[in-house]
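Hi Y.,

Following your request, here is the sequence exactly as I used it, all 576 residues.
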Amino acid sequence: MRRKEALTAILCLLPAAFLGGVLIFYPILRTLELAFFHMDPVGRPTGFAGWTNFTNLLKDPLFSRVILNTLIWTAGVVIITMVLGMAVALLLNSRPPGHRIARLLLLLPWASSLTISAITWRWMLNGQYGAINQLLHSLHLMPVTTQPEWLALPRPAFEWIIVVGIWASVPFTAIVLQAGLQSIPSDIHEAGWLDGASGWKHLRYLTLPMMKSVVVTVGLLNTIYVFNSFPIIWIMTRGGPMDQTHIMITYLYKQAFTLSEYSSAGAIATLTFIILLAISVINIAAQLRQRLPCIGRGEGMRRRPLSLTVVLTSLVALVAVISVAPFLVMIITSLKGSSAIFSAHPSWLPSPVRWDNYLRAFQETPLTDYIQNSLIISGGATLLNLLAAAPAAYALSRLQFSGKKWILQAVLVTQMFSPVVLVLALYHLISVLNLTDSLWALILTDGTFSLAFSIWLLTSYFNAIPVEMDEAARLDGCTRMGVFRRVLMPLARPGLAVTALFAFIYAWNEFVFALTFIATPDRNPLTVGLFDFVGRYEVQWNLLMAASVIAVVPVIIIFMFIERHLVEGLTAGAVR
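Below is the corresponding structure, written out as tokens. Let me know if you'd prefer a different format.
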């Protein structure tokens, strides 16, 4: 019986294992080959290099700057994000009026594409017409005659990139930490208040110790996320000016796809891989620690003075405004005419309102082609993802077989690696498969790289279904696969819907693979199409912002419906 169950598990895991093996683990091996071999200009090995590629990399005078930037970028964004994220989590957990709306608005940077967010920030930082200078002028924090080009000089450019990284990272951090705060039993909070603990002592001696495992896990996940935030830097500065804002993954991309220095790129990718693997191992160790009990309510239930309620509500409103501000700039710009945008004294509100910009965005850009390509890619990737994730999740949830624990950890490890680290090896694989400049390349890669989280999410949904349902079906004569098809799949329909929407959003927002694998502009998805429009043509920012609104609003609407379920999936390993 156990042998038959093990065979069923192998069949269930086979599709996901095949995709992961071909598109993730094989590229890892290929990346190691690139690092230890000399490569010709088309990426073919010409001889064993040993450690030469690494020593040459260390002799590169720019690489020391890249390492320093990577450390400053990662440490700066993660530390500030964790502090602000905890502050926002405590604020939301106090449940002042409007906290639910603020939570939804806070999630906008997380839900939207980093590509579109980076494009919007690039416009906001425009020296002559951007919203940042306009705001500083309005608040009398800078003379009207001063119009700094923030992205034209290395130091302010890097500082603003860090600001954008923090803005994009705080939502995830705050929401997961809030879930952790809600997992602390209410009686612990009550005991602290009865013992006379002040707010600071309560936080220091009760809340933070109880939150230790969650904070460690979220900090490690944040480190991986920030370390891999390729679109922010590439879109805002492309590593410039003068190559002074590169971090390891952007420098890797430049070495591979701008300079064709494949050996150097392989060495950088290998170093990045080792760093991410180390972080992943630490993260898995944190995941295996004892979890906190599930949801309880505590400090948010205590009565507050009216003045404190007003202060908390004001702070919640401020958090919401900061989160939504770039999107408001995007919408306002999309409704302005060119003369209003490039006015010497631009107004905050559009006058007159130019709704025709949305029609012109379709008429004057290949927006229809971009949307069609994105729909094909996202739909295909979602279908592929579900076909592989659902049986794999069933095996991990219901079937007993040797090595199950290690397979689940391998799934978590694949979740940790950035597409940028493997993109060079994947590019060679896609070329060998003759899929370059094909939408199939993006369907395969997008469907595979969202697979780990889909398996994780569906496993948690299957675990929530009572095992007694399986046993009753088995008594009625169902096979294992019959139970999967006739019992678990119908009962897990909400989980399947959420997983499908997540996979769709991931593919819709993906940037790196599309930037690398697609050469024909008409085959670009929305993310790369909009980015390409910035660099290829004289930018009509009102039309670009209109196209960005069209691209991001549907995803945000979908996300608002599924955010609670996605947060449950993301926090399952941290607070349960």
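The radius of gyration is 25 Å.

Thanks again,
Q.
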